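Whiteboard transcription, Tuesday session. T.W. wrote the structure tokens on the left side:
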């Protein structure tokens, strides 16, 4: 007996989103469509069907869910994709579609870690200034680097997938264009080569990150941006748990 095929919309772009799209290609009865924001110029395309670009806010997303007979939505966007998370919750409520948040666990400090968590990038700038950091490594979105321009006493090494256009008017900065993941050994060599004194990044979560392991090994301070609030919804910490949720529908 052939099962009827139902559509699940994956709001993706993360490692978990790609893994979920792979898994759905082998899950009977489900058709996956991955939606990517389109912020990188040449995104890696997930398995199955893909759409790129926004929906036009929660109303546009709700209309898309109705027009495409979407049976479920899995929000596998980055933990810092604040707006998409709230839009998904509002749209699914309006369209009457079940929503799951595929939410990787946040990182937590361990022995030897020198972490300081901040609420925004302005606070991170203040910490760098107060600690008199002369060379800092920024691992953040290219559009977010602008917040660090006012700190003229620090040389920044900035890693991003794409170079911003126009470039922020830093007093001293160099850009490394690369797409991860990176091993702890690679990160440690990078930090030593550029004489990095502090790491600035987001608490993206998931398996312990190479740059955090390298910072621990080198006893470097890490300035970590806290995650923004997300709407209350059903959550799953792993792809396997998300597939179990779908099976329960």
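and on the right, the sequence the group agreed on:
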């Amino acid at each position: 007996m052939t099962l009827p095929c139902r559509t699940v919309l994956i709001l993706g772009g993360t490692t978990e989103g790609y893994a979920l799209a792979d898994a759905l290609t082998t899950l009977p009865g489900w058709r996956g469509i991955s939606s990517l924001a389109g912020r990188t110029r040449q995104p890696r395309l997930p398995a199955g069907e893909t759409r790129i670009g926004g929906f036009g806010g929660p109303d546009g997303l709700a209309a898309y869910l109705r027009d495409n007979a979407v049976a479920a939505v899995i929000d596998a966007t980055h933990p810092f994709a604040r707006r998409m998370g709230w839009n998904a919750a509002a749209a699914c409520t309006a369209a009457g579609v079940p929503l799951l948040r595929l939410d990787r666990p946040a990182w937590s400090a361990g022995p030897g870690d020198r972490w300081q968590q901040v609420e925004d990038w302005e606070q991170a700038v203040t910490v760098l200034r107060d600690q008199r950091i002369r060379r800092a490594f920024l691992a953040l979105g290219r559009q977010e680097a602008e917040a660090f321009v006012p700190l003229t006493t620090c040389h920044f090494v900035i890693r991003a997938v794409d170079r911003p256009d126009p470039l922020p008017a830093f007093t001293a900065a160099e850009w490394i264009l690369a797409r991860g993941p990176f091993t702890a050994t690679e990160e440690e060599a990078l930090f030593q080569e550029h004489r990095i004194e502090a790491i600035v990044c987001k608490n993206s979560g998931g398996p312990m990150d190479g740059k955090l392991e390298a910072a621990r090994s080198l006893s470097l301070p890490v300035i970590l941006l806290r995650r923004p609030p997300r709407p209350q919804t059903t959550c799953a910490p792993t792809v396997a748990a998300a597939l179990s949720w779908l099976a329960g529908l």
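Someone added at the bottom: The longest helix spans residues 82-95.
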